[in-house]
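Q&A log
Question type: sequence-to-structure
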Amino acid sequence: MKKTAICICNYNKKEMVISCLKAVSEQKEKDIDIYICDNASTDGSAEAISDFIREHGEYDITLLANKENLGGAGGFNRALGAALDSEEAYSYLMCVDNDCLLDEGCVGALEDYLDRDPSSGMAAAKVYFLDNPSIIQCFGLDISYELCGTISPYFGKPEDGSGPDVIYSDAAPACALMVRSDLIRQIGLLPEENYIYWDDTTWCYRARCAGYRIANVGAAMALHGMGQRAEIRNTFGTYYSWRNQIRYFMLTSPQDKLYDVAIRLLTDVYLEVTADYECHRAKRAAAVMAALDDALHGIIGKAREGIICDIPGSDHDVVYESVDSLPDKYRAGAEIFIYSHYELFINACDRLRKETE
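Response status: OK
Response body:
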C-alpha cells in the first residue's frame, strides 16, 4: 500500500504544472501516488497533463478534469476526495500548488516528521521564492487578532542556516502541506465556501480545534511562485481575499476580542475603499464593499455576477493607515461607516457561529 497521495490543483498554468509534476515524480520517496485536478483550464493544461501521464507510465498519476472552475478549495477537494475514496489506505495526503516545485527530499522529510510526532496533524514545507530561491517566502503563519491578519515571521528573510529545524504555528499555506488522512476524515476537506484564499488557514484552524498542532519542517523545502492574483488587472483577488479574511475573523475571534476585531476590520475596509476612490478605482472599491456585504450576509462560494471584473491600471497609489491620515473629506464619514456596520457585524458573527457549531 502506498503511504502518501500527492494532490495537485491546476488552473491555466500549463507549463508550470508540468514542472510541478516533474518535481513530484523526482522525489526520493517513491511510495506515492499522484492525483491532479484540472479546474476547467482553457490553456491546454489538461492535454499537456495527459501527455505527461502517457510519457511517464512508471508513475501512478490520476487526472481529474473538472467541467467548471471550482476554485482552489474545490479543485483540491476533488483530488483529496479521490485519494480518500481509493482502495489505497494512504497515511497522508499532501496538497501541492501547481506553481510549487518540491525539493527531491520534501515528501520524505514531511512523512518522517509526522511519523515521529503524533501531536502534529499537518506538516508544511519551508517555502522559498521561485524567482529568488535564497529568500524565504513562508515558514509558519500566525494569526493576529490585533491586526486582523496573518504574520509570517520569516517572510523575506535570506536563508542563512540559523533558523530552527521545526516551528509550530497557527496556520500554514496549502502550497506544500501534508495532512494526516484520519484528520481529514475528522475535520472534513478544505472549506469550499471560501472558493479560494483563506481556505487553508481555516482548515488549519479546524485542525487546531481538533487538538492537533501545525508543524513547519525546515528539512522539507519547496519553491513557490506565490500565485497570481492579478490585482492590477481585475478584482478577483481583492474580493475573495477580503471576504474570506473577514469571514475567518468573524468565525474564530475570541469573545473578549470581538469588539476590537469588529472595529479594526470595519476601519480597514473604510480605509481601503477611500484609498481606492482617491485613486479613481471605483470598481475595486465596489469589490471591497461587496466582500464586506457578502461576509456579513453569509454569501459564500463563487462570487456573484458582476463583482469580478477588469479594472484599468493606475500610476497613482495611496495607502491610508489610520483614520487620522485620511483627507478631511473622508475623515468625518469614518465614524458613521464603522458604527453603522458594527451591530450588523456582531449579529452576523453570532449567526455564523451558530451555523458552524
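Response note: The chain has two domains: 4-224, 236-355.
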